[in-house]
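Ticket #4471: structure export looks truncated?
Reporter: QA, pipeline team
Priority: medium

Steps to reproduce: submit the single chain below to the structure queue and open the exported record.
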Amino acid sequence: MDTAVSALEERIGHRFGDGSLLLHALRHRSWCSENPGHESNERLEFLGDAVLGWVVADVVYRRHLDSREGRLTDLRKSVVNALALADVARSLDIGSCLLLGRGEDTAAGRDKSSIISDALEAIIGAVYLDGGAVAAHDLVVRLLGERLLQPNGFSPYTDFKTMLQELCASREDLPPVYALREEGPDHAKFFFASVLVNGSVLGDGEGRTKKQAEQRAASDAIHRLKGAASTEPNA
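Actual output as written to the record:
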């Protein structure tokens, strides 16, 4: 694991002064439930999400001087969403370094868009704590800057459920059906969603709200459908 984490540091371009922060960012809640006494990456994800939003807003404001507020919002959404972040996470091979519970690992959790995008946000939060605002700003620009410089090549993803419904219609599949379950007390509920297409589960997602879990499940399904299409003959 030490070798894998060291290689991940090289890929993200930040050498941690406090290596425990990166390990913390890689701990999924499923692993923590099997290893009591360790905090999951959820708090770091919360911090990283805020840092990411700040950096992206700062970058689009400065680089797109002629854009109005609505266009700036679209540019931000084109990066600050689970599908876009999952693409970056896959390019960094974050999934191979995650600490996952046995069940989540068996269920292909290392490639779930919701899990790896959350982990990327947690890493951003960890870099912010380890190196400060400048290091975090540099990291986000290094990982996501090209998407912001070439916005026309990367469309905004704002409603994954609608996107999935349209994709299924174009494939003449049945409409997506969502299954939802929840865990935890009323003041700290966590939701898990699965999306079924033609009776088969194509995507899974989790989040602090039903909407977030379903959107992430739809995002996961879109990734799997597009990945399957790219491997079909003549695709």
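Status: closed, not a bug. The export was complete when the record was re-opened. Leaving a note from the reviewer for reference: Strands lie at 177-183, 190-197, 200-207.
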